[in-house]
Amino acid sequence: PIREEQAPPTPSPIREEQAPPTPSPIREEQAPPTPSIRVSLLLQLAEADESLEKKEKAYNEFKQVLDLEPDNEKAALHLGNLALGLNSPKEALSYFEKVLNRSPEHLKALLGSGKAHHAMKHKDKAYSFFQKAYQSDPNDLTIILEFAKSAVEMNELDKAKEALKIAAQNNPEDEKIGIELGKIYILTQEADRAVKTLKVVLKKNETNKETLLELSRAYQLKGNLGQAIKTVRKIIKNSNEDPLLHLRLAELYVLSGDKEKGIREAKEALMFDKIASNESQEIAVKIKQWEREN
Questions:
Q1: 90 three-state secondary structure
Q2: Predicted TM-score (pTM) of this structure
Q3: Phi-psi region at 25: left, alpha or beta (left = phi > 0; alpha = psi -120 to 50)
Q4: Contacts of 72 (CB under 8 A, 6+ apart)
Q5: Which residues contact 156 (CB under 8 A, 6 or more apart)?
Q6: Residue range 187-237, pLDDT digits in tens
Q7: What is the pLDDT of residues 87-121, one digit of tens each?
Q8: Which of 92, 120, 217, 294 could be joined to 84 by an S-S link, Cβ 3.0–4.6 Å?
């Protein structure tokens, strides 16, 4: 058979040569953050950790700030307060001193120094710092409370009372100021003023345990044992978890002449599961004393 001539193969299209890939630009290495930027970042991180109660982590971060900037007041102040919270008052004092060396009138550093000295049982030094802070700002409620408590410990009752009276007039809604003023009136044997002051506080919070307890003492000072007993029973009704409240009630029963009722109330206090050994011993001693006298 006659063979048909095959058509010559179609030439494949000519490929255009691809250009070689463009080399990627050379990356410049980023410079490490400057010390000031590192300080700023560390401060933010430390404050965030402190707010999350990660105290030891925050403490280490604030220390890193001081390594970079030894005169950073903010870090030193935070370290002082953290050291106080970690029961290291001597170390706390060193940080507050660092702040006061640069800013002698720094209120928070004065307050912190007072707290550190108080924790170390240096009552006279604590009072000196609290007094200086109070003289610098007699309107700061935290400073007023610390100054007044310290003044009481130094037996400067008139100074404590005057500071709290002014604070109570300017801040009638503040419960803590009212309670501390009531305590001062009890210490200065001003029963009527103590009762009046504490009843004003009680109107804001009728179940406040501390207010009611101090009010019972004010009534006792006034000689109104019936009202004192009624007040303590109200505390127990609201929160029957403290054996020492039953002891307090027992003491009032005994003072009112009803030793048998007092002994029964004290024995009830011993029935608490979570009573501390020192509390148990105190109550047992009272019971024996009253039984001998009965």
A1: helix
A2: 0.79
A3: beta
A4: 39, 65, 66
A5: 127
A6: 999 999 999 999 999 998 998 999 999 999 999 999 999 999 999 999 999
A7: 999 999 999 999 999 999 999 999 999 999 999 99
A8: 92
